[in-house]
Specification:
mainly alpha; 2 strands; 105 residues; two-stranded antiparallel ribbon
């Protein structure tokens, strides 16, 4: 049987540190080693943890690793997915705080 932690990793589809996943599960009151079943899959805690992990991806700096990179358009798609999940469990949407950049030459 699959654990909640493995199911969460499978849902993200992007490389993310296991520490981040564990932190999000703790914040949502999930036990990583519990069995993943229909009840767990539909729980607000699991859906929220998926959204939290997706949001953590877009708040990280842009990077390229193992032939994967995140562009701003990718981040907006991930943000839309995270917000859809947050809204489905009655939580408010989150945003990207894009701030103007100042370049000193």
């Amino acid at each position: 049987m699959k654990t909640i932690k493995q199911a969460l990793i499978d849902e993200i589809h992007y490389p993310i540190g296991s520490g981040i996943i564990e932190n999000k599960m703790i914040l949502r009151g999930l036990n990583a080693e519990d069995d993943f079943d229909m009840e767990a899959a539909k729980s607000k805690a699991f859906i929220g943890a998926v959204a939290d992990c997706l949001y953590s991806l877009i708040t990280a700096p842009n990077f390229s690793e193992a032939d994967k990179s995140f562009s701003m358009s990718d981040k907006k798609l991930i943000l839309n997915q995270a917000n859809s999940l947050y809204n489905s469990i009655g939580e408010p949407s989150v945003g990207l705080d894009e701030k103007p950049k100042v370049y000193i030459i």
